Amino acid sequence: MKPWSGRFSKETDKLVEEYTAAEDITLDKKLIIYDIIGTEVHNIMLNRVGILETATLNKILSTLDELKNLWEAGKFALKIDYEDVHMNVEKFVIDKIGEETGGMMHLARSRNDQVLLDLRLYIRDEICEIFDLILELINVFMEKVEKNSETVMPAYTHFQPAQPITFAFWCMAHVDAFIRDLTRLNEIFKRINTNPLGAGAIAGVSWSIDRSITMDLLNFDGIQENALDVISSRGEFTSELLAIFSIIMTHLGKISTDLILWSSKEFNLIELDDAFTTGSSIMPQKKNPDAAELVRAKANKIIGYLSQNLGILQGLPSGYNRDFQETKGPLMYSIDIIKGSVKIVSGMIKTVKINKDRMLSLANSNFITATELIDLLMKKGNISFRTAHKIVGKLVGVLISKDLDLNNLKATMIEETIKNSINKEIEITDDDIQKAINPWKTVQRREHIGGPSKKEVLRMYKDRKNIIKEITEKNLDRKNNIKKSYESLEKLVQTLISNKKTKE
Amino acid sequence: MKPWSGRFSKETDKLVEEYTAAEDITLDKKLIIYDIIGTEVHNIMLNRVGILETATLNKILSTLDELKNLWEAGKFALKIDYEDVHMNVEKFVIDKIGEETGGMMHLARSRNDQVLLDLRLYIRDEICEIFDLILELINVFMEKVEKNSETVMPAYTHFQPAQPITFAFWCMAHVDAFIRDLTRLNEIFKRINTNPLGAGAIAGVSWSIDRSITMDLLNFDGIQENALDVISSRGEFTSELLAIFSIIMTHLGKISTDLILWSSKEFNLIELDDAFTTGSSIMPQKKNPDAAELVRAKANKIIGYLSQNLGILQGLPSGYNRDFQETKGPLMYSIDIIKGSVKIVSGMIKTVKINKDRMLSLANSNFITATELIDLLMKKGNISFRTAHKIVGKLVGVLISKDLDLNNLKATMIEETIKNSINKEIEITDDDIQKAINPWKTVQRREHIGGPSKKEVLRMYKDRKNIIKEITEKNLDRKNNIKKSYESLEKLVQTLISNKKTKE
Amino acid sequence: MKPWSGRFSKETDKLVEEYTAAEDITLDKKLIIYDIIGTEVHNIMLNRVGILETATLNKILSTLDELKNLWEAGKFALKIDYEDVHMNVEKFVIDKIGEETGGMMHLARSRNDQVLLDLRLYIRDEICEIFDLILELINVFMEKVEKNSETVMPAYTHFQPAQPITFAFWCMAHVDAFIRDLTRLNEIFKRINTNPLGAGAIAGVSWSIDRSITMDLLNFDGIQENALDVISSRGEFTSELLAIFSIIMTHLGKISTDLILWSSKEFNLIELDDAFTTGSSIMPQKKNPDAAELVRAKANKIIGYLSQNLGILQGLPSGYNRDFQETKGPLMYSIDIIKGSVKIVSGMIKTVKINKDRMLSLANSNFITATELIDLLMKKGNISFRTAHKIVGKLVGVLISKDLDLNNLKATMIEETIKNSINKEIEITDDDIQKAINPWKTVQRREHIGGPSKKEVLRMYKDRKNIIKEITEKNLDRKNNIKKSYESLEKLVQTLISNKKTKE
Amino acid sequence: MKPWSGRFSKETDKLVEEYTAAEDITLDKKLIIYDIIGTEVHNIMLNRVGILETATLNKILSTLDELKNLWEAGKFALKIDYEDVHMNVEKFVIDKIGEETGGMMHLARSRNDQVLLDLRLYIRDEICEIFDLILELINVFMEKVEKNSETVMPAYTHFQPAQPITFAFWCMAHVDAFIRDLTRLNEIFKRINTNPLGAGAIAGVSWSIDRSITMDLLNFDGIQENALDVISSRGEFTSELLAIFSIIMTHLGKISTDLILWSSKEFNLIELDDAFTTGSSIMPQKKNPDAAELVRAKANKIIGYLSQNLGILQGLPSGYNRDFQETKGPLMYSIDIIKGSVKIVSGMIKTVKINKDRMLSLANSNFITATELIDLLMKKGNISFRTAHKIVGKLVGVLISKDLDLNNLKATMIEETIKNSINKEIEITDDDIQKAINPWKTVQRREHIGGPSKKEVLRMYKDRKNIIKEITEKNLDRKNNIKKSYESLEKLVQTLISNKKTKE
């Protein structure tokens, strides 16, 4: 019989057990250590405020410690019959030390606030890890920047060649995007790292608990106060986190799409490493960018998990509803996807081979620097931007119709076209044209803030270097603080346990 | 080294193996039997058209048979190192009988058409099973109809009491909805039950295969012809199926919402069985409709899986892209959810306790039959519908302000109000009013097609009984045909294997 | 004051009017004609069964006719103050002919069943139109098939060249996909084309209406019977339709992605017509595939509208809830998107320029026919498929490392590799190789069902021609039947009106 | 002909114009003022760095000023033929002052960075407004707190009565949730309020622009630097904003669900004001919570718009793609929905009638304080929590079976049950029980941080009062700064224009 079954006259249908707990109990593997820690802390607090006797506390802690060791040794399994991790842990303790003692463990809390505690401890560790993985990816891009500030390549809009940039400039764009993602993670961390314990089922508890004790022991930054708000907001942080993940995945997806496209035979701007591609069971020539394709596909999964999460919350009344449980899967699956995807993209970028010749060659064709001619015409012909744009457009049209490229453009053609279009005479040399349309010169000209010139890219590089250093340290601090609090707790628990043993 | 690694100079990164195959290989457990069957059939066809020697065929079949037995005995595990179920199976065969023989197995097909074959064989079995589960649920509702055609209760709109119906009428509404769902499953079944094998990687194969042989052996209804279409349409049938599932889940979700609401203490129209509810770890009085809540939440999961599936497809070019693989999870998780959810709702409806007294009492209060007075006023007063509506509205307003219910309405009040509103005199008796507003009489009056009167409900019941019989038989036929084709195939395979043994 | 305001003591807050009706009243423009028709039919039925006097009917019909003319002349505007199209129409009628007569119009129905009627009449017309637009698109593809059964091009998997096909084969793949879409539209049409009128608010009506009369007058295929089911299933058909639309959009999106990719300078397989591309405000050389990009983006919008629609339904109890209204937008916006997108893709395909030389050239490079060598090696060397696959893989690796293509492969290289790999001697000629790897020959070899050979493509072409003819006629019939029913109704209405005038 | 049509030989197909611009040009109405401001600022900067002559600048500014006046007077309409707001504005200017002068306006920028500028100016104003509306809603809740800290009511979990709270406590929970939403808006504001102008099409421009000038003139907090990142990140801020909106909507939706449920006749805890409800066209007694239902439904719309937005971005390569345009609708529609929904909920809460008697009565029944007995049993019986929980569960079961409520519980029953269950004798009085289960006493006992006791609620109330004051001022500052920058700009523009006039 379930521990809550006092008022029930029938056992839970097996079908219901399976339906309500099968996936959940598997997911709970990620929570059990946090559940034990949370229970230790809760019971220490109960003791400090005088609700729980020291002897009882010590026995409970000792049994929890035993369980932790069993779990870490792979000798404990969560059972579906006991519903969830919380009841599995309580069952273990009661079985060991009896209901008289073990039955005190759950006093003054509910599974509703307990699971929130477990989830937050779990999430904050995962955020720290994801933070580090993204930092690593940023550093991979930064390394590429150093070596490629002169690697000219085309930038595309609408899948069409637009203007020349450098590969370093492309890398820096992603660095900036990921720095924003880290800022978002920093912001949500503050909100997640608050203490939910003490909210009870929905309305707090009738015992004089002290929520600041558990807050301190677990290194929380604060307390989420209103009990009803604590319980009702389950899923809110998950939504927020999955939204941040979705944005991260669109960044990773964008990079993957670039890599897939650029490693096509037709683009051929890069070659992915053999270790990050796979072959075909039937076509022996194939070398496919499978990993990149899966990053792209998995981005859609996270977007879908976000939809699931928001959909589950939407329409619920305030308070706890069992529906909340179903937000656990979307959260945990998404965390795994994010970590794998960041690593995969790091690996691909780190090992990618850049075809510099092909890049330059494409930056030198397809009229990619036509915009530069506008400037030339404006200066030489004293004509407006829009007029110059139209004339260059016409010139491009003529060249294409003759199957020629921009490099074939002659000064006489320009002079003629201007004469015919706006009846103006200008003087221009072939050398003027070549200087204007040279892709490297074009890149170098763009040295305003955020431009692709070598100088500006290196300035941004240096600036971001400092930012990265700062946020790396911040995350290190954060991790250290959590680690230290767990170590202190462990020390405290061991002291209490040994007190108990001494007494025995 | 992977079987396709001829042109590669490096092994796949472990990270990539994990990222691309970890979840997939787990899902493939549901496909391995189908993969073996498909390989048997493919090789038999190759032999029949003269591409594969009989001796080779028999050895392959014998090894596949061995594998099948191992799998069913739980003695074979899919390994992530061999990527997917297809390569795991080939690896097993080649390890057993050598590459010279086993290396013929994959001739004239690709994993691209092979996985489509596996998926369709899997899906069609699942559709048949889901069909049966929904039929069972329909029958559960039909049983309730028989006993409740006189169980008067309120129907709600906007969470407000609207008009009286019967519980049988409510059940019949769900019967009709689920019959539509079964029609949709019938329609998609025809499209799914077509042969994709022979499409190869994307453009068919250069061998003179005969796709009608494999079609016949596997009891397909036809061939999906154009090879490029076959490969490109991966995910299309999944989208369609998940859309049907989403609709089914909104039906189940609607029922669950009704059950949750009606079993609230305040509504108290029904009581869920103890076996389909759970308690609280802290509040001893609690009996919560968790199973129903999870049906509601899981509906959102399937809607999210549909989004994932469509999102993954959207934006891909024609042909095969690895992204397709990620549609496998949404499909398989959704199938499990649907089956579990239908069973849970069946269980809840089968065991629910109906509070008939409370139902009738609520159907007798809250002005639920006010609409009926309109009719009375129109007849007695010779006034238009809209005018009568306004007058009844006013009367309701007056009664509410005096804290009275419709049963307290007196003929004099009506007469007065009509006099004051439109300066008309009408004659009406208290008895007229009571006849009009009686909920059972109201229900009985509604005997047009689709109305809640006992007569009409029983007519619909009888009609649906026939429809259910017909579609039950249809699904039985379908299942039998599949079963027979598998039995014939098994017989054929065993004959060929024993031929081989005889020769040895 | 609102017509339902009898029991209310305050007017609706302006904010509420705006919030509840602003978008809705705009959308209702698409429904007003159907609302008038539905009202005509409902009142004719009421008269036939003896509930409504003929004189009243005729006056109502005459006023509705007047309104229809005003609307069509652009002289009538829906007002937010009267909430929705239904109340706007009733208001007009009552203002014209008084509440005594016009106030009878809404008798024995509710806005709940009325809006379902309007929506179904609207949807079935739209389905017919979309059906025709897709048929037109199919025909555009069919025309391209005729001229391109010898236009060899590469087929891609993973954005990498896979095997040679023809442009005609690519077109035929889309023809088959769209034929499936039409089948789905046919299936849903049957379900949508059933009569909801008579379901009333939720439980039918207390008047002896005859729902088969309205069914016949409106050319419905049947009646959706159970009143509660009728009302509760609002949004179900929309979900189903949006799911079909989502699938259609993934088809259109796939084509668009191909077109965008192939019209990139690097692929250069096709050129989109100037009329279906746009330029840049700053880069004069640009010619961008904007229309195709928007098809791709709008596909995501429909997927999102489907999510909205399902999300709105999910979690609602049975019966009517105002939430339903919000499904109107997703439906109507999606219909507009679908129609525009099909037309745009038709236009792009019709006008696209195919670069046959480039297609052939790409089908002749990048080892695209390497698979064909497997066959050769198997025959000549009597080796298994998997062994041959590995050897060809190695050969490809060697050629790439030497910067050579498949055309540079010499028989001696093969012989040597086989010798070294499996210590076997085989004889092969350079001519054998050339025959094997020739892309046109490769295509022609694939003549099994669904293969890209000219013969098989033309067989499929002919077969689909017949199917298209058949479904075209089916849709024509459907449209004609609807048209005829409206004409008969109009005739009937005019007769009744003129009767009225005669009498006056 | 389009201004970019130099290289084109055909005009854009009308179909394409309609498909690409019809919805967009309507949405652009919200941007035109920002587009004019952005153009003013851009041209002033060009002049300051010496690229644009002062005479030209003044003419452009003067014409833009004229356009602004026309627009505000409703005398200018955006035309689909000129594609978008940017080209419409340029067209107007060139038409007025000629291409020679007006054709300079678009120099050194692209529509790609221009639209980003327009959107950010638009969004930041909207965020400020939404911020204020949410503050107003928070204040509405705060007012209710003052009057209801003793209004005892049941809190629900699983739609079942759980424990007693107060209405003030429920209000405070929402206050805390909305304060978090405001924090999120503050965080995104910083990211959005950065200058994108100068990113050009994708790679900056070849002119020596100074992006800090435009930053200062527009009161931006900084510059989003890397040009490629600026362009590629279109849609990122929209995703983030829509995610925040989705969370806000789940808060509003939760409140709406509570209001709908509680205003059902069966719960009857509250009554919505007549002005925030509507009636039925057929059922005269109906008073429906339509506005609340629509908040609930519209929440799903925003979740769907978020999906659309993310889906559109996902899979795109870096750089600009026309797909981005389709994110404009989801953004703008969502902003309108959010503003409307916050106002509606404010209105409903402000006017809601609280049925205090019913609240107290429900807080006094349904075993809602059973948890309190555990405490009593633990103290009196010296038994563990879990044992006490089981015994109370049993007592509840017995009472229910006898159709009794908790108030009927006698000390003797407890003593007996304990005796029978665990063979223990305890002493307890009926008075002990009544003290324990009194709902008001229960509430008052819960005075730890975040509990519902009057004392703690008032402490939180006071604390939040300060926080609200602080963030209100912050938003006021923000709005003032933006306002001042616009005023300074307007002054500057007018000075320049009058200079021009003076010279003329």
Word description of this protein:
The structure is a homotetramer. Chain A is mainly alpha-helical and about 500 residues long. Among the domains of chain A are: about 100 residues, Orthogonal Bundle (Fumarase C, Chain B, domain 1), CATH 1.10.275; about 160 residues, Fumarase/aspartase (Central domain) (Fumarase C, Chain A, domain 2), CATH 1.20.200.10; about 80 residues, Fumarase/aspartase (C-terminal domain) (Ribonucleotide Reductase Protein R1, domain 1), CATH 1.10.40.30. Chain A is built from 18 helices and six strands. In chain A, strands 1-2 form a two-stranded antiparallel ribbon. In chain A, a hairpin with a 2-residue loop joins strand 1 and strand 2. In chain A, helix 2 runs antiparallel to helix 3, helix 2 crosses helix 7 and helix 10 runs antiparallel to helix 11. The first copy, chain A, is elongated. In chain A, about 60% of the residues are buried.
